[in-house]
Amino acid sequence: MKKQLQSFVALALFLIAFNTRAQNVENLASYEKTKLLFAEQQDSKVFKALSYNVLEGFRKDSTLMRSFQEWVAKRNPDVVAFQEFNGISKAQLVEMAKVAGYSYTVLQKRAGFPLAIMSKHRITDVVKVIDGMHHGMLYAKIAGYHFIVTHLHPKTYEERILEVDTLLKYINRVPKGEPLLLMGDFNNMSPLDKADYNNEAKMKLVVNSEKNNPEARITKNGEIEYTAIQKLLDAGMIDTWRKFNTVYDKSAPTKLKKHQNYTRIDYIFMNQALAPYAIDATIVKDQLTDTLSDHYPMLLVLKKTAQ
């Protein structure tokens, strides 16, 4: 009986330890999926969109920028949408894109935390929104797709909700049936991940984050506030990562950061018109993305629509 009790206690301790570690362990499947989705880089029948918060303009490190140039040139997505393109001029963007094999670029602004796009395809109908948003929004038409790139307020859920209301005004202007992609760093967790956050360890990390950052507001009445993302889902936008992945994975932090407050706040959403064309989506994880930024990029792969 004593041995049985000891075995039961040992098993219980193992399960507790395993569940605790599970919150911090990488979803290794993302590394394999990244290799798979970039393997057929020259497939003319697919369209690949990459969204990446590059941490204050590659931390103003030209070596990191060159590493990214080489990396993206080999993987060859059709469009790359940047957040935190800090300190990089339009001329530098054009040169970086040219070296990586991209002929078309747009920079939202110079000051603060800019958004930017580089594309294999012509960029038209550009709208740059700065006023009324902390980092802003960038709209463009590319290869028949409506693109909206954004970076929501880093501090409070109230501000993020207001910024989503601004996004929805632009989303609702897109004619029904036309393909729309919305991407960026939303700084807000998703209600679709609620089951993965609904545990004591995660909530302790969130509460500590609020304590250490008094201006931050992540929770309301002791629970994570999901309204900003819920509004997008209610408007019919599809979280592409959740559409194709069932096991939780974090988009931040990367291995560059030491803290364990795992979160998925980087998204590529698509509208219902694109649902039949979606092939797969992943959080892009490899040796470079582990440390280039504090966020991992997002990748969406689509069957090309008629342009």
Automatic annotation (TrEMBL):
Domain Endonuclease/exonuclease/phosphatase: 50-295
Signal peptide: 1-22
Transmembrane domains' residue ranges: none
GO terms, molecular function: catalytic activity
UniProt GO BP: GPI anchor biosynthetic process
Pfam family, one: Exo_endo_phos
Entry keywords, A to Z: Signal
Superkingdom per UniProt: Bacteria
One term under GO cellular component: membrane
InterPro entries (UniProt xref): Endo/exonu/phosph_ase_sf, Endo/exonuclease/phosphatase, GPI-anchor_lipid_remodeler
Protein's UniProt name: Endonuclease/exonuclease/phosphatase domain-containing protein
Organism of this sequence: Pedobacter chitinilyticus
Origin organism lineage: Bacteria, Pseudomonadati, Bacteroidota, Sphingobacteriia, Sphingobacteriales
